[in-house]
# Entry
Amino acid sequence: MGVDIGTSSTKGCLTDDKGHVLRGAERAHATATPKPGWFEHDADTIWWADFRAICRELLEGGLPSPSALCVSGIGPCLLPARRDGTALRPAILYGVDTRATLEIDELNQTLGSDRILARGGSPLTSQAVGPKLLWLRRNEPEVWERCQRFFMASSHIVHRLTGEYILDHHSASQCSPMYDLMKNEWASDWSELIAPGLELPRLCSPLDEVGHVTAAAAAATGLRPGTPVVAGTIDAWAEAASVEVRSPGDLMLMYGTTMFLVQISDSARPSPHLWLTRGILPDQLTLAAGMATSGALTSWFRDLSGSSFDDLFDAAARVAAGSEGLLALPYFAGERTPRFDPGARGVIAGLTLNHGRGHIFRALLEATAFGVRHNLEAMAGVAGPPVRVAAVGGGTRARSWIQIVSDVCGREQQVHRESVGACLGDAWMAGVGLALVRPDQPWNPVVDTVSADPRVKELYDQRYSLYRQLYRDTHDIVHQLGSPLPA
# Structure
């Protein structure tokens, strides 16, 4: 069994030992935004409640309880808790939550941004857990005084199931600056500086068997008592595993609420524009990049226009490459890599009275493709170009979107049989962790290959250059627009 707790839904699946999905389940949930720049999940009513519901749905109708279980989830997140795992406040989510800007600046000044990058492999950004912990300590002292442990989505479920307090090495490597990437251990001196007295979780591999389902957890979930539980990891890396991104040069392009890229590269070096982290397999490094929007942008326009996705993709397909003179920036929620600019904003340039919803929607799809190209160029600069690109996620159901990305980037993309996402990678990790599945075993075969159309290369090369220029030319304007008015 694999279960993944995502930004907007939780998904689960039961598979056999060949990767065939026997049953799937999904449960939608909302993300709270109590203040601008804040994104939160309640661990009890979302993470644990969703997990219990997914388990019961997967097991209903007589299907056997799984031989092994693994959970992934959004991350890196910060759930402050008591020693018994009781949550003290809603979890502060990953890089979309930008509340700790001042703490990022302070830690960069105190520890040195170059030293942080060299020791931890990644620049200090809103993606990191360290600044969020410091923010909690400074801004919610009544919570901090009671905080004894911290969890992410996957490790919280592991604790609820087994009582174990663990965190996998990959997730820990996104706790910058509290993890030493080169030594593969907690950076105890910097951790104590940021979060004095906080008990840090035991580190393990994402594939390690870390415990067994207790009688109480079995009663709550319907799982068999004693079921082995594998540590799991952050969702994007589980999703990469679902499409067999395992070897150096393999790259996953995830079409989700955000666009996320993971490339296996044991020779990559730290970059101030990307994240270098531990991988799923032992001694493996991965280079990662993430845009702030993609599916979120298409959903925004769907809701704004009152149209269905089918209608919008059909309308966009009737518009030629280049959107008849429209050019968009997809930074509607700021931008993560490679810009690391939370103050960036969306732009749609070139509008006329002759443009309709199809033109605008295609321009937004092309904008996400330009963002992917920008990230691929940054990744190639420190790890070399990818050998293979695997497309995954809900957005892959729209083949025209994959085609636009291939055309803009000049890259072939492979689409696999199953696109259920990270939960399928979790099932693979559960099988490998219990030696029920070989690490190199075929799991999710390729069923489609999307190649770049050479006829639009020159057009998209020119538009990509303008895309980069449009950000520079509008930078000061959108930052001023996003600043609070003077009192």
